[in-house]
Amino acid sequence: xxxxxxxxxxxxxxxxxxxxxxxxxxxxxxxxxxxxxxxxxxxxxxxxxxxxxxxxxxxxxxxxxxxxxxxxxxxxxxxxxxxxxxxxxxxxxxxxxxxxxxxxxxxxxxxxxxxxxxxxxxxxxxxxxxxxxxxxxxxxxxxxxxxx
Length: 148
Description:
By secondary structure, the protein is an alpha+beta fold.
């Protein structure tokens, strides 16, 4: 599995409640751009309309050697099973939950896959708590290393 991009900002700003693996509908130039890692997921988000799941604002730069041009921020359809879409719809309808892409990768067979998560925004005090907890863990690890 070759990971192309991780959405670290989303992991910092959101609690991931549940994650799903989905295929992505892409054109030829977009796949080649993904293989080169020319993708930005910082402002991307998901939505469900007419029983289909779409990702908006996912920026895939145009492949410089392709002849066809496309909109780099167009909406892209995700391929999920109908029961997964129903479950996602139920989770996203709850107040405060959003659909965020977490990472894009190529599986063993060479297909582009995206991990999307149902997320809830973190409050400022949650972020501070997380930072303090990490600092404590680092200090404990340092003390344990010295004690050896």
